Amino acid sequence: MRSTLSLAIVLTVGWILGAASPASAQTPPEREITNVTGDLYRFREIRHVGMFLVTPEGIIVVDPTNPGLAAWLKDELDRRFGLPVRYVIYSHSHNDHASGGSVFAATATFIGHENMRHNLQKPPADAPLLPRERLWDANGNGRIELSEANGYAAQAFDLLGIDKRQGLTRSNIWEVRFGGGATVPPDIYYSDQMTVRLGGKSVELHYFGRGHTDDMSVVLFPDERTIYTVDALTPKRLPFEDLDGCFLPEWLDWLRQVDELDFDILSPGHEAIGTKADVTEQIDYMRDLVDAVQAGIDAGKTKQVLVDTVMLEQYAHMREYQNWRAVNVAGAYEILMSSGR
Ligand SMILES: [Zn+2]
Questions:
Q1: CA of 231 to the centre of ligand 1 (A)
Q2: pLDDT per position in the chain (341 positions), as tens?
Q3: How far is the CA of 269 from the centre of ligand 1 (A)?
Q4: How many whole angstroms from 146 Cα to the centroid of ligand 1?
Q5: Per-domain residue ranges for the chain?
Q6: Burial 77-98 (b: 16+ CB within 10 A, else e)
Q7: CB 44 within 8 A of CB 76
Q8: Are strands 265-268 and 226-230 parallel, antiparallel or unpaired?
Q9: Disulfide-capable partner of 50 in 63, 66, 189, 275 (CB 3.0 to 4.6 Å)?
Q10: Centroid of ligand 1 to alpha carbon of 92 (angstroms)
Q11: Domain covering 1-122+184-228 in this structure, CATH number
């Protein structure tokens, strides 16, 4: 989680807990496990949430999240259930959800979408910038200097200790989002759909094409009538910041396919759980965002004009509208201007 957001995160988490128990002004626990339904649980660290399903033959973990949280989770699972983790399912390859699985490697089989294979490969030092990154490269030297960087790229200088005069390569930018060496690669890759069965229970993985990333699985727990959508569908909240690495307009089609699934409970990788009704709001928001930005591009408007005029006021009640509406618009502009990514 980027440091510039830390204050907002603390305030937001405090607000949620405060709302739940107004008599208490205590700091919320940094980590916790909560039951969703039956043997299905969420585990959380600050504002990141993964899931696990307990069966008589072992546990299925979805998104180990990060090394510190995964180590804590393993201790908790040992203490509470005394069962090994048999499967680790990845929703996608972003390292703020996929890292830390090594603590389960002795007992677990790791599963992810086949596009994770490419995304987990560090690009060579001379790899060209992505189309969207080339929009940032104002001086056209093939590197992103600090004055040209935003979003995750801007963090890379400090996180990787890169000389600010030197600029970032494609490989440097990848390192921030996918690197760190802490992601155990999948043992099993699937392409369209897969069912994992353990101890009389099942978990389905569904691939609906490009959206938040090109390697995103929707995880469906059919008996629990619950889906896990991690970063790609967050109930009652705008999509994250500048839509880094996301695909438009394909994300809209992705959301519509999620709406076709049979479920009642929607469990995201951030914030509180929702219901099927929250899918409709996300579809409406994404459609209106894409339509407005594309119409502006077609009319020859600049990014700044669109940021100043695409207000999407009908979604002002959603979380992070005040903070992320402008960067959602700017991100959508850059994606739609650069071959859909
Ligand atoms: Zn992500």
A1: 5
A2: 333 333 333 333 333 333 344 444 567 779 999 999 999 999 999 999 999 999 999 999 999 999 999 999 999 999 999 999 999 999 999 999 999 999 999 999 999 999 999 999 999 999 999 999 999 999 999 999 998 988 778 888 888 888 888 899 999 999 988 987 679 999 999 999 999 999 999 999 999 999 999 999 999 999 999 999 999 999 999 999 999 999 999 999 999 999 999 999 999 999 999 999 999 999 999 999 999 999 999 999 999 999 999 999 999 999 999 999 999 999 999 999 997 55
A3: 9
A4: 23
A5: 1-122+184-228, 131-178
A6: beeeeebebbbbbbbbbbbbbb
A7: no
A8: parallel
A9: 63
A10: 7
A11: 3.60.15.10
Give the distance (Å) from ligand 1 centre to CA of residue 216. Answer: 9
Distance 212 CA to ligand 1 centre (A): 7
93 CA → ligand 1 middle, Å = 7
23 C-alpha to ligand 1 centroid (Å):
35
Burial code (b: 16+ CB inside 10 Å, e: under 16) for 236-264 equals bbbbbbbbbbbbbbbbbebbeebeebebe
What's the pTM value of the predicted model, to 2 decimals?
0.90
CA of 310 to the centre of ligand 1 (A): 25
User: For residue 246, what are its two tokens?
Assistant: 């996301």
What is the whole-number distance in angstroms between the Cα of residue 106 and the centre of ligand 1? 26
Compute the distance between CA of residue 120 and CA of residue 185 in angstroms, rounded to an integer.
8
